Amino acid sequence: MEKDNRSPERREVKTSRSESKEEGSESNVAKRARVSIRARCEAPTMHDGCQWRKYGQKTAKGNPCPRAYYRCTIAPSCPVRKQVQRCPQDMSILTTTYEGTHNHPLPVAATAMASTTSAAATMLMSRSSTSQGLSSITAPVTSTTANINGVNFTLFDNSTTRPYNFPNGSSLAPPTITLDLTTNTSTHLINRFSQAPKFSSTSLDFSSSSENIKFPTPWGNNSNYLNYNPSPPFNKTPFGSIGTLDFSKQPNGLTGNVRNSQSSSPSQQLFTETIAKVLTSAPSFQHAVAAAISNMVGSGNSTNSWRATGNGPNGYQNQVTGLATMAKPSFTSYTSNHSQSTLMSSLSHSKGSSSMAPSTSIDANNNQ
DNA sequence: CGTGTTTGACCCGCGC
DNA sequence: GCGCGGGTCAAACACG
């Protein structure tokens, strides 16, 4: 109670806050779209390669677990925020919700996550903007499953099983996509997120497809395809669009594909390779991702421009203390002007260039 | 001393 | 119009 004697300043605070809510016209859409990642994680927060500052904590209604609010501190003006909350049903499950788009260079480790969320968010916005009559449909839970070497990617409409973090749901909740890494899952894979910031994730964007698509993967023996089969009802939810990518099965038999990356786990490696394979072997898929990220970043420029961290001309790098060390174990610390550049460059670089740290192993098993 | 976290209050949008 | 709840702020505090 004695805390708040700042009411005069509050007026200005309020003004600036409402400004910041509207700020970034280019990211207006992006700010509305949110991407949640559900993962088993013992750590208080997932390390995604970015640097965050906690600015608040709140106990949400209907959830005894407090929700923590973080904002990206790599750049002072970065609008990206994330919310971290434990699942009341299973305290080991951590839900991290990202909102907004970074407006500054990112290290690879962070870019991977940013790309993922951006692409997912773009998928959301793309679908919600193109779908019609979404409020009139109450679709049952429908799912779309892809299988890559035993890893299931399930994209399902959970509109009827409303996420707990939006207890009263409805229009209050911005369109949100959930990447569900919890079901049955590869705990080591998750732990890579939670403990070591060296996960070279990737970006999945299913937005531009309308039919069953199979992306070949060069390894494995039976299900050598990433099978994407969008269910029509997916894009029609009362919330705009809500979906889940469900990495529901731990790949067994992780042999042969594991590279010699310093400290990556086999499952992480496999996962990375899996995704990389899909992307590198499916140009159209790359395109979709690139376009998605391009949209999110608000720049149609697809030029890759690389810049070493540590002494970038814009000064950002100096602010990201700890970031370099975070990225060190697995990545040569690159940043790029645009997340899309980073992702796509990392793909192409890893194919033939030595610029990328070999441990990204994106080029592993490339079957060209 | 600098940086990050905690925490109570305030703002604002939405539902009733 | 009112109340509720989520999101945010910033002073105080903790920690290295």
From TrEMBL:
Residues 1-33, 250-269, 332-368 are annotated as: Disordered. Residues 335-356 have a biased composition (Low complexity). It comes from the Eukaryota. Gene3D superfamilies: WRKY domain (2.20.25.80). Residues 1-24 have a biased composition (Basic and acidic residues). Residues 41-107 form the WRKY domain. GO terms for cellular component: nucleus. PANTHER family: WRKY TRANSCRIPTION FACTOR 36-RELATED (PTHR31429), WRKY TRANSCRIPTION FACTOR 72-RELATED (PTHR31429:SF24). This is WRKY transcription factor. It comes from Fagopyrum tataricum.
